[in-house]
Fold this sequence. Notes:
It contains three helices and four strands. The chain is an alpha+beta fold.
Amino acid sequence: xxxxxxxxxxxxxxxxxxxxxxxxxxxxxxxxxxxxxxxxxxxxxxxxxxxxxxxxxxxxxxxxxxxxxxxxxxxxxxxxxxxxxxxxxxxxxxxxxxxxxxxxxxxxxxxxxxxxxxxxxx
Length: 122
């Protein structure tokens, strides 16, 4: 029993430390910094990172937001290899919707946003 505990403790201590990181990348034609900050904050607020992928892995989701702020589409561009991590990222984007309506100064009918949920090394 003690041997099993010691092995488990060594494995936990030897496991790489992971720091969750989040970034949002907006279409280059979209320059409204206040909107970007607000939309990213909504997603980040709902993200509940779980133990998951090894350091350096990430989930990249591509969201399509309509003029009225509705989430028209969400697809994965890259998965981390950890279903729990990927599911938490997807849930965060869906929970953030709807977003604020797009500014009138942005003339395109939709906005593409890439959300990156990274398991960075500590």
